Amino acid sequence: MRTNLPVTGIEYLLQDGQSIVSKTDTKGRITYVNPAFIEVSGFTEPELLGKAHNIVRHPDMPPAAFADMWQTLQAGEPWTGLVKNRRKNGDFYWVTANVVPIKENGATVGYMSVRTRPARADVPSVPASCTPGPAVRLSVPPSATAATAPLPRPSEDEPPRLTS
To answer: Which of 30, 52, 84, 99 could form a disulfide with 58 if both were Cys (CB 3.0 to 4.6 A apart)?
Structure first.
């Protein structure tokens, strides 16, 4: 797993209605970014194009979340999840990520991701790396809706513990 450093504790908030859009090839290399992606990530377009999309991966994100995303996408299904990303300067931002396969003549030729500002109530107050236990599935199955499949939140009765 790629570890992007440095990181800070400073959160960057997306604007209401702002959509970050990117496209990748089937290996996850970026082929397109919209101006909002450039603004929010802090990278320039030349720094992003041709690079692995995990250039914005925050180290707090559990690897199982991305394993689930790739398994879902490779099955030809869309994936939705809450993701913490890292800006070039180390700050972080939360997004609701919606990723879909791009198909031509029935074959997947790449992926498109549209990311928006999540509801504040959906953003965990404790980083995933501080939450004990296995990573949780962040995607919403096609048969569920956000109202019937809320994201799990750490118990307020149990204080967060750092794990190594």
So the answer is: 84
